[in-house]
Amino acid sequence: MSRRGVLSGLAGAAALISVVTVVSRLLGFARNLVFANAVGAEAVGDAYNWANTLPNVLFEVAAGGALAGALIPVIAGPLARGMRDDVSRIASGMLGWTLGGLTLIGAALALAAHPIAVLADLGSPAERDLVAFFIRVFAVQLPLYGLAVVLSGVLQAQKKFFWPAFAPVLSSLVVIATYAGYGRLLAGAGLSADTADVAGLPPGAAELLAWGTTAGVLAMGLPLLVPVWRSGVRLRLGLRFPEGVASRARSLALAGIGGLVAQQVSVLATITLSRRYGGDGALTVFQSMVQPTYLLPYAVLAVPLATSTFPRLAAAAARADRAGYAPLAAVTTRAVLVAGGAGAALLAAVAPAVATVFSVIGSGRTELIASMDVALTLIAPGLLGLGLIFHVSRALYALERGRLAVLAVSSGWATVVVASWVACAILVPGAKDGPATLRALGIGTSTGMLVAAVVLVLVLRAAAGAEAVRGILRTSAVLLVGGTVGAVVGRWTVDTVQALTDGLPGAIAAAAGGGAVAGAVVVALVWGLDRTTLTGLVRRGGAAVTPADVPLDAAVPGTLPPEPPAHDDDPARKADR
Predict the structure, then answer these.
(1) Could you give the residue ranges of the DSSP H alpha helices within 121-161?
(2) Domain segments of the chain: what residues?
(3) Of the candidates 490, 465, 443, which has an alpha carbon nearest to the alpha carbon of residue 564?
(4) What is the DSSP letter of 237?
(5) Biased-composition ranges for Basic and acidic residues (predicted)?
(6) Could you read off the pLDDT of 500-526 as tens digits, one per residue?
(7) Residue 434 in contact with residue 278, Cβ under 8 Å?
(8) Rounded to an integer, what distance in angstroms lies between the CA atom of residue 119 and that of residue 415?
(9) pTM for the whole thing?
């Protein structure tokens, strides 16, 4: 297959993932709106979010690091050589270790539920008891998340992207129904989200929230068993890998766990700072409103491209193909950076309209919710870094340089902790201040993500050569200008529309118009000043992988051939300068 064909397939896969992800994230956004209305930002909402943090963090990190990052690189070679039995054995071994390990962690989490709830420092004994109950139920989610991640990795390694992208749609539908059912239970008892007391919840309300949320996680993994079976992979629970695979998988997985620890520390810091400086409601607004909105453009624009690229990079690395790996890494890294820049401009532009939507729909803490527009604006630059963290860390996993990836990513999470703490200390010097705390957390998150992105790009250059990051500085400069202009023009559009309209319909119209303007400005400037970033997805890349291309002794994991010298008569190189 030609390079054009490979990248057309890459673009098509990214488009498929993006379309499904749009549906998934819109449902996820609707889920957060239903949560804001039915559960709210009062004591129950804080308890729920506090307890649900740990399994969510485990899933997010495992999906991008410990599990998928370990599975796809070790499975790429056998897939390319047509060794289906080895593929099944690797997938089965990974599933067995994942379910076993996460079940033990879940059991430990359930046993430690009460001491952890005491650490939450939520105030009343009733709130601590509710947190402990939620933690015990949510501990069941851990092996279910593991099932979803391993099955998704098996499908993505085979370039089957629909079901891994669609499964969260099913999960969101289950969770939306759970929140709505909880709201109906409250209404039936004459209560609402802002009047419900933790100690006076209707019978079955807390149980519905806990088990309904857990059922949503099950809905994300169980349906994937069917497409995995249809793909020809036969899963058998066990702990054995083919010879030589276990050590590679263990090394990559342990590297991912290092990233998990770093991110967990940052999440715990966010929880602590929210409680210490922001007071009641700050944690819920940040985790259930600010962060999901922040992640929406990232998931729709950056993740599809990075996800569809990963198995191709892994296949190129498996056959030690620098000529395929480095140009593909470079062009997709620049494209992911553009996606992050467009997302940042869009988010900064629509922030006031999004705050209005949550203020109209949400229950309780209306002043705090209304202040999230500034937090969204401050956290928006982090999208440039977040997309690169997802993509470049996977590019390093493809080279089986997981430790380098984790060190780079950990530097970002450490910066999030320090920058958030410093920002809180400066912006909230006295009494608790929820809006100021949201702003501080936004500043800390953006700073950490950008630091990690810079370090990751430097590490990728060291691991794969200058060709793997060619053109990144020019793209960054163009995005600095384009993103700023797009954000300003888009925000002006939002403010103008909101001044002419009222209520929820006006806010939605303003967000749609301002977001479209911001994104269009960024893309137009990139097209005019850095066109090769966009056209490169069609013009450059690696060759297709077939079994004949990959001999059984193809490559030493984590290595590429020496980088060839640059030739000044190469028009592709000249175009990138």
Answers:
(1) 125-138, 141-157
(2) 3-541
(3) 465
(4) -
(5) 565-577
(6) 988 889 999 999 999 999 999 999 999
(7) yes
(8) 24
(9) 0.76
